[in-house]
Amino acid sequence: ILQLLRLLQINNGVFVKVTKAITEMLKVVEPWIAYGYPNLKTVKELVYKRGYGKVNKQRVALTDNAIVEENLGKYGIVCVEDLIHEIYTVGPNFKQASNFLWPFKLSNPTGGFRPRKFKHFIEGGDLGNREEAINALVRQMN
């Protein structure tokens, strides 16, 4: 299931659309992941700082809009801002935009995880559905 979500290494991050299937998958892997609803600022910071595109199965830094336009132009996504907008609003081409982005390689959170990191978020740990609190965690890890 983690492979289906493209979470192959520790501290990886991806954007997924909330569907019934995804919700069921998240429930199964909840003891090992943290997830939530990022705000626009978080999405922007992630894409600009740690954004890499997938071009011919290679990891390519998003240095200019030409890379985005070449690969996503046919979906009407021609620049990095369009990419961020498509992901944040979960637009009609969200799947293509999300799959174009290589999974984000995040750092350990500054200050480390909480001492009870293997407990669920509602029990004072770091795992599971953090809802809006995901923004603070991503900010620490970015």
TrEMBL record:
Top-level taxon in the UniProt lineage: Eukaryota
CDD domains: Ribosomal_L7_archeal_euk (cd01657)
GO molecular function, one term: RNA binding
Regions that span the bilayer: none
Keyword field: Ribonucleoprotein, Ribosomal protein
Annotated Large ribosomal subunit protein uL30-like ferredoxin-like fold domain residues: 1-33
UniProt similarity note: Belongs to the universal ribosomal protein uL30 family.
Protein name per Swiss-Prot or TrEMBL: Large ribosomal subunit protein uL30-like ferredoxin-like fold domain-containing protein
Species of origin: Fusarium oxysporum
Organism phylogeny: Eukaryota, Fungi, Dikarya, Ascomycota, Pezizomycotina
